[in-house]
Structure prediction request, 102 residues.
Amino acid sequence: MEPLDIRDRVTLSPIAPPPVVEKPKTDPQAPSFDQLLKDSLQAVDRLKKEADQAIQQLTVDGSGSIHNTMIAVEKADLSFRLMMQIRNKIIEAYQEVMRTQV
Prediction:
């Protein structure tokens, strides 16, 4: 009886190198995160001022229409709610990072 030689039955393939993970390409012209936040806050503020102006025109001047005023108010309200939800998500992400143990 011949001894059993495992090398006759098993062929080993070479180990493949790990896949290369490329960094996401960033556009050098893209605005930074803080600039995006500032622009968004300014847009919300602009919509609020437009709504206030539409209310002013409707109530005091009498030159505005109720439809345009309601649309302006709803735009301002919706943008404010969206801003608050984004703020809440940013705070949650910050708190999650602070909870991670090093």
The chain has a mean pLDDT of 85. Residues 32-99 form one domain.
